[in-house]
């Protein structure tokens, strides 16, 4: 496989900037944003046999096709301030446009680089129903991009990683690469781990976020996921992450994906770690609000917020997991093992306490010291409602009976947050942010 041609940094276009620029001030963190185009020949794969439950798949290279895609980079302006770690993100396209989380403070405060890869066709060309991909957002900047289809996404992701490791993206220097993917990208990333990693070994570790327990086929042709349309029922393809890897894999799930993954739970090992947080859901109100700001800036129209969306943010767990994963890669120190969410019954259901909040699992302070019922139980029937879970505030008299006053509530909330920090699931900076959020959330007047 020939290395792709790298062009950039890219500038110009109708908007004069890369799509989905972060909301944080990169300059204030000593970072620069750059965008690069990759031109190359990508290979697709076929599975030898079946995608078995154990994830131990064997692939054979198949067809080839030309592509031109982009990668967006956030890196320290001063290469001397770089940690040498690059977080290479498989950009998520479930919304019909690209979502990615390069503004994590765990990245920006530690000198890590972020590399967002437009690995899938929808990110480049959008959906027929919405046309919100890169080439439609800014035809002047992105009109030359071309994606041959998602069968080739796995090799495009590999080639992007190899360009990072080879130092071909300007002053970006990295010798430890962490692959990251969430939601739809998590499914593709697990297929990558199980099938492609043994062939290419392009990454030193993997961070899989909100994964529904199944991978993506390597042969989908022109098919893409369009959540605005009814989704066809598919036979169950649940499977595990293969257990014979030479690099660590860290899966972080909300309560919603924990339900999907229950029948393929696997033990923690010296190369695998699995966290799940009670009371959380696939999307949180905090993430929804942040995305709405970006959406209005980038597309020029407001994105409605859903008031019943779950309000326990899972983003702090991602930062903590990345912190542990880098230590795992650098020092061989595995992350702390965490309890799993409790299930009971046939079919298995999440065990819930007297408040209706799931028991067991990671206990974030909003679940441990609640003023509302947060859960993965949807408030509606459509796919977006299922992803949003639900939030229902306690009546004022119940809040008063539980805590008495604001000071007592905040003291107990901080105690729970510090316990989560001690358990290794929250970082100190996130504890402080959650305490500020809790102070604003107190519903009574005192």
If you had to describe this structure to a student in words, what would you say it looks like?
With 446 residues, the chain is an alpha/beta fold. The chain is built from 14 helices and 13 strands. It has helices spanning 105-108, 121-125, 134-137, 139-142, 153-165, 184-200, 255-261, 285-299, 315-331, 365-368, 383-388, 396-403, 406-423, 428-441; strands at residues 5-7, 31-47, 59-76, 85-90, 113-117, 176-182, 205-209, 249-254, 272-277, 343-344, 349-350, 372-375, 390-393. Strands 1-2-3-5-4-6-7-8-9 form a nine-stranded mixed sheet, with helices on both faces. Helix 13 (406-423) packs antiparallel against helix 14. The longest helix is centred in the last third of the chain and has 18 residues, at 406-423.
Descriptive keywords:
single chain; 446 residues; alpha/beta; 2 domains; two-stranded antiparallel sheet; 14 helices; 19% strand; globular
Strand order of the largest sheet: 1-2-3-5-4-6-7-8-9
Proportion of residues in β-strands: 15-25%
Task: Give the count of structural domains.
Answer: 2
Which descriptor suits the 3D outline?
globular
Please write the string of helix (H) and strand (E) elements. EEEEHEHHHHEHEEHEHHEEHEHEHHH
Q: Over the alpha carbons, how many angstroms does the gyration radius reach?
A: 21 Å
Overall residue-averaged pLDDT value: 96
Helix percentage range? 25-40%
Distance between the termini: 66 Å
Number of strands: 13
Residue runs with pLDDT of under 50 for 5 or more positions: none
Helix/strand class? alpha/beta
Main beta sheet: 9 strands, mixed
Q: Count the helices. How many?
A: 14
């Amino acid at each position: 496989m020939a290395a792709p041609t790298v062009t950039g940094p890219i500038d110009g276009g109708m908007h004069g900037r890369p799509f989905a620029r972060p909301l944080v001030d990169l300059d204030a963190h000593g970072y620069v944003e750059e965008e690069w185009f990759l031109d190359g020949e990508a290979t697709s794969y076929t599975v030898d046999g079946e995608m078995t439950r154990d994830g131990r798949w064997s692939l054979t290279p198949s067809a080839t096709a030309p592509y031109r895609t982009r990668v967006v980079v956030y890196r320290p302006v001063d290469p001397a301030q770089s940690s040498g770690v690059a977080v290479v993100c498989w950009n998520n396209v479930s919304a019909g446009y690209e979502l990615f989380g390069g503004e994590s403070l765990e990245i920006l405060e530690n000198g890590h680089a972020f590399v967002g890869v437009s690995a899938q066709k929808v990110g480049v060309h959008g959906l027929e129903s919405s046309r919100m991909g890169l080439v439609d957002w800014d035809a002047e900047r992105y009109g030359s991009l071309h994606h041959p289809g998602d069968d080739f996404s796995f090799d495009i992701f590999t080639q992007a990683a190899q360009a990072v490791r080879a130092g071909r993206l300007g002053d970006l220097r990295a010798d430890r690469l962490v692959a990251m993917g969430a939601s739809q990208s998590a499914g593709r990333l697990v297929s990558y781990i199980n099938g492609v990693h043994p062939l290419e070994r392009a990454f030193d570790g993997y961070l899989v976020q909100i994964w529904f327990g199944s991978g993506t086929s390597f042969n989908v042709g022109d098919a893409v996921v369009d959540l605005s349309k009814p989704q066809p029922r598919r036979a169950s393809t649940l499977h595990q992450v293969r257990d014979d890897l030479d690099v660590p894999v860290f899966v972080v799930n909300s309560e919603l994906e924990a339900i999907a993954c229950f029948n393929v739970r696997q033990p923690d090992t010296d190369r695998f770690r699995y966290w799940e947080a009670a009371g959380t859901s696939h999307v949180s109100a905090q993430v929804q609000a942040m995305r709405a700001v970006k959406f209005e800036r980038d597309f020029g129209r407001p994105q409605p917020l859903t008031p019943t969306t779950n309000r326990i943010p899972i983003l702090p767990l991602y930062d903590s997991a990345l912190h542990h994963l880098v230590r795992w890669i650098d020092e061989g120190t595995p992350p702390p093992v965490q309890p799993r969410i409790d299930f009971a019954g046939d079919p298995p259901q999440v065990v819930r306490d007297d408040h209706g909040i799931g028991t067991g699992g990671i206990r974030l302070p909003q679940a441990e010291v609640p003023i509302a019922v947060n859960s993965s139980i949807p408030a509606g029937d459509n796919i977006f409602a299922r992803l949003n879970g639900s939030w229902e505030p306690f009546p004022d008299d119940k809040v008063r009976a539980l805590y008495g006053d604001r000071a007592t509530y905040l003291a107990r909330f901080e105690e729970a947050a510090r316990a989560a920090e001690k358990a290794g699931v929250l970082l100190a900076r996130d504890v402080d942010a959650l305490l500020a959020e809790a102070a604003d959330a107190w519903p009574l007047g005192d």
